[in-house]
Amino acid sequence: MSDPLKILREKCLACRACSLGGREISPKCFSNVFSNMSPSRIMAIGQNPGSEEVKKGEPFVGASGRFFNEAAKGIIGMERSSFYISNVLRCFTPGNRQPTRQELDACRPILDEEISIIKPTLIIALGSVAFERLTGMHGIMKHHGETVVSPRYLVPVIALLHPSPYNTNNPTNREMFHDGLRKVGDFLRQAKRMKSFSQTGREWELKSEKMSRDRKTYLNVDVFLEDMSRGKMMDGFFLSEEVFQLLSAKIQLDRELAKQITDMAVVLLLKADGKREVEDLLAIAESFVNG
Ligand code: SF4
Question: Measured from the CB, is residue 266 less than 6 Å from ligand 1?
Fold first, then answer.
């Protein structure tokens, strides 16, 4: 077996790194569940499998999964097979309780390896536990539907509420989930338009000194690059004329930086209010990378 994803699946199913692994939940149905193995670079990652998932050996096949499938199809016209679906924790927990920090940490290597194999262009974090594991951030209600870049994986992440009946039976939360999905649709449409959106900028190693960034307009190029590399870019930012000029010059001297900027094109465009400056910057970076 040379397919790295199949090897990882076998590793996951055999995993006993914490006490959750290998428990027989119902006759011949064991607690470990891997992914739907869909060949997609759009990942949807939830918390951990429930009892229906254990029975079928696939994540998001219970009520939450059915809601997700129908909403994705109805709102953004995407079938379940368009998503690679998995969880941050791969085993059913006793009584379906919340996973502990230790269990999540024990399971982290599987997530790390999976993301490095899939190389996603976008991750949809389903629920607060997935959002926190993927971005290190808290407050899913505050960040719902936003695009943030995972500092660990350097991949754009959009957080949505977990599509569990607890949320989706509540009309406000259900509408919030639908709105979040529309943002996913916007992101993917932009991504499609950007020719350069083939990688995710995972090799970024930009370093810059810490600067105050309590202003909406970036006045310092290093602060902009640091925010970009850490996925902490402010929503609705502008570039000052000086930052724009400096970035344009830097890009033309540094092919790696130009490539990083084109890789992050969609995120930059989604976050920018000063769209014209950012579009100009992207055009310079793209022509340098391609030319
Ligand atoms: S939860 Fe993760 S680390 Fe624990 S046994 Fe299951 S697969 Fe292994």
Answer: no
Q: Are residues 233 and 172 in the same domain?
A: no
Tell me if 255 is assigned to some domain.
yes
Structural domain includes residue 79: yes
Query: Is residue 68 located within the same domain as residue 156?
Result: yes
Task: Give the model confidence (pLDDT) of 16-60 as tens digits.
Answer: 999 999 999 999 999 999 999 999 999 999 999 999 999 999 999
Q: What angle do CA 131, 135, 141 make, to 5 degrees?
A: 45
What pLDDT, on a 0 to 100 scale, did the predictor assign at position 282? 86
> Measured from the CA of 16, which atom of ligand 1 is nearest?
5
Residues 98 and 13 in one domain: yes
Which mutation among 102, 110, 112, 113 tests ligand 1's pocket best, with the greatest number of atoms within 8 A of CB? 110
Same domain, residue pair 284 and 166: no
180 and 159 in contact (C-beta within 8 Å)?
yes
> Where in the sequence is the domain holding 248, given as residue range(s)?
217-290
Q: Same domain for 150 and 57?
A: yes
> What is the pLDDT at residue 56?
95
Helices vs. strands in the chain: H and E counts, helices first: 13, 9
Distance 15 CA to ligand 1 centre (A): 6
Cβ count within 10 A of residue 254 = 13
> For residue 22, which atom of ligand 1 is closest to its CA?
5
- For ligand 1, say whether the CB of 8 is within 6 Å of any of its atoms: no
Nearest-angstrom CA–CA distance, 261 and 209: 19
pLDDT digits 0-9 by tens, 95-128: 999 999 999 999 999 999 999 999 888 999 999 9
The total number of structural domains that make up the chain: 2
- pLDDT of 224-247, one tens digit each? 888 888 777 777 788 877 788 888
